[in-house]
């Protein structure tokens, strides 16, 4: 899918799917999987804070629970300007893809593209435990 369209889906998730009563910092993500299917999601905050789920993980877990295992690209937007995935989300992206484009956007026209290798160099992943995605 075109980057612009993927970003539009992330914006839609940010605006309509996030649950952020504590920070009011809204994040949306849209992830394109190996077969071109797309899943989106927003961040979900929990009153005791630590169970909070980032938008990236919401989108990725939706895809994985529908049987997908390989991420091609992920677009991320927030209510606070350019927002990069947290360390936990970088590792979750790594679980389901090594050759991933990470699109950090503010609008469908204004975005930067990074590789996962740039954001998580020298990573540890399934192959280090002898596992290919199953
Ligand atoms: N958050 C995300 O959803 N994704 C990110 O990449 C950074 C942070 C969320 C978690 C929390 O709900 C809020 O943003 C403030 O940290």
TrEMBL record:
It catalyses: cytidine + H2O + H(+) = uridine + NH4(+); 2'-deoxycytidine + H2O + H(+) = 2'-deoxyuridine + NH4(+). The active site is at 56 (proton donor). GO terms for cellular component: cytosol. Residues 1-127 form the CMP/dCMP-type deaminase domain. Zn(2+) binds at residues 54, 86, 89. GO terms for biological process: nucleobase-containing small molecule metabolic process; pyrimidine-containing compound metabolic process. GO terms for molecular function: cytidine deaminase activity; identical protein binding; zinc ion binding. It is an enzyme of class 3 (hydrolase). Pfam families: dCMP_cyt_deam_1. Its EC number is 3.5.4.5. The keyword Glycosyltransferase does not apply. Keywords: Hydrolase, Metal-binding, Zinc. Substrate binds at residues 43-49. Transmembrane segments: none annotated. Its cofactor is Zn(2+). This enzyme scavenges exogenous and endogenous cytidine and 2'-deoxycytidine for UMP synthesis. NCBIfam families: cyt_deam_tetra (TIGR01354), PRK05578.1 (NF004064). Belongs to the cytidine and deoxycytidylate deaminase family. This is Cytidine deaminase. It comes from Peptoniphilus indolicus ATCC 29427. The gene is cdd.
């Amino acid at each position: 899918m075109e980057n612009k369209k993927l970003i539009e889906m992330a914006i839609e998730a940010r605006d309509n799917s996030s649950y952020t009563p504590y920070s009011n910092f809204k994040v949306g993500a849209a992830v394109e999987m190996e077969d071109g299917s797309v899943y989106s999601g927003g961040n979900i905050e929990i009153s005791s804070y630590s169970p909070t789920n980032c938008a990236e993980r919401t989108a990725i877990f939706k895809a994985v629970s529908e049987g997908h295992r390989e991420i091609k690209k992920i677009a991320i937007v927030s209510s606070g300007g350019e927002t990069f995935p947290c360390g936990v989300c970088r590792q979750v992206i790594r679980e389901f893809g090594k050759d991933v484009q990470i699109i950090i956007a503010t609008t469908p026209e204004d975005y930067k593209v990074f590789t996962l290798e740039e954001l998580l160099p020298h990573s540890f992943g399934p192959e280090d435990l002898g596992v290919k995605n199953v």
